[in-house]
Amino acid sequence: MKTPAAGEPANKAAMLPPVPTNLPRWMDNKDTNHIYRKRGSYNDAIYRQVPLLGRDLNAISVGHAFAYEDLVTGKADRLETDTFNRINQVLKNPPRFMPDEASIQPTFVRKYGVLEQMIDWAHILHAQTVDVLASTKMTDAQKDAEIERLYQFYSEKVPYAITSLPMNMGYLDSQPYSKAFRQKYPKVNGLFWGYHWLQGTMYDMLYGKTAEEQRAAYTDVGKRYHEVELYRTDRPFMPMFAEVSPKFAQKFPHIANTFDNLHMLHDMLNDILASDWMTEEQKEAQIKRVTWMVSADAHKGMEPGKQYGTDGLHDHRFMAGMPGMGMMPEGLMNHGSMNHDAMPTNQTQGATEPDTTNDSTMQHGTPPEGTTAPNSDTTVPYNHTGH
């Protein structure tokens, strides 16, 4: 068996938490599941009404798949160079149609099929929710009702849905392997967190607006995404849904939590794959563990706002006044472009409460202080034509 890499603490592997026993049968499923999305006249509306956003979302799928396939096929040493450049080229020239991620990352899918299914199913919820918001055939009330039906469809159709409960982000980001990816591959991690910034920001950008207003808003948001957010390497933590789309998160906290937990799953997966001190067997075991950790099955019967046990896994409290946002690591609340002032200390250890009297939102027109757009050596011109 492979031993931990030289230079790593000798006891680090011994600190790895064990995989729970008596896991449900779906955790060992070897079948390929392709569950079709919920039927609706709104499907693909984002491509008709806000096509630039739709194509940018297509490119995100390609970017994740390129990176994961290279990580599991012995090409991790190219991630900050060749892989980054390949992803960046797609981001600047996004495909017209949504790609099949499994065809781009076949080795990853063969190795971690259940995890890929969990991620893909959550991505379908992402896509259909955005389609509803972009639809011109529904009233706002009808959209709200259909979004709830979409979530019910998502949570009941398959056993591998992600929990909608708020989770303690400080706990999830304090595993023995945590932060490995962002430290080792800061440029690619910046792309990933840039994706998550867009995937969160777009909900308030779309919510309650006409198609014309949505397209106009994406002119600014898309510019910021391509020129600033994709290339930031100064974030201390991933963008949180309730920070970048507070109105939507307040109305649909269960959906906001689901997407935050999805993005945290990406981070934990990234960190495990980037930890060279682990053997392949240890990586597979830890990936199985994190898949279980964020699953709805793992938290059955639990309620938001409550803490069960003391290990942090079942800490389902949320930030004060923000049911769509789990407890944050200390000092990392409002870590994006939001107001950092007047942040009182939470009495709960390891968390920070927001100033609930200040309903500040993302200012999309001004880059964060200390942030610069990438130079011409690492980017190609942003082009939405020709595909």
Question: Would you mind describing this structure in some detail?
Answer:
The chain has helices at 45-49, 51-72, 79-92, 101-104, 106-111, 113-134, 140-157, 169-172, 180-184, 186-206, 211-227, 241-244, 246-251, 253-273, 280-293, and strands spanning 318-319, 322-326. The model is unreliable at 335-387 (pLDDT under 50). The chain is globular, with a radius of gyration of 20 Å. The longest helix is centred in the N-terminal third of the chain and has 22 residues, at 51-72. It has a two-stranded antiparallel sheet with strand order 1-2. It is mainly alpha-helical and 387 residues long.
Question: What does the largest sheet look like?
Answer: 2 strands, antiparallel
Radius of gyration of CA atoms, rounded to a whole number? 20 Å
Please give the order of strands in the largest beta sheet.
1-2
Tally of alpha and pi helices:
15
List segments where confidence is low: pLDDT < 50 over at least 5 consecutive residues.
335-387
Mean pLDDT: 85
Number of strands: 2
Strand content: under 5%
User: What form results from the Cα inertia axes?
Assistant: globular
> What is the percent of helical residues?
40-55%
> What is the element string, with H for helices and E for strands?
HHHHHHHHHHHHHHHEE
Structural class: mainly alpha
Distance between the termini: 47 Å
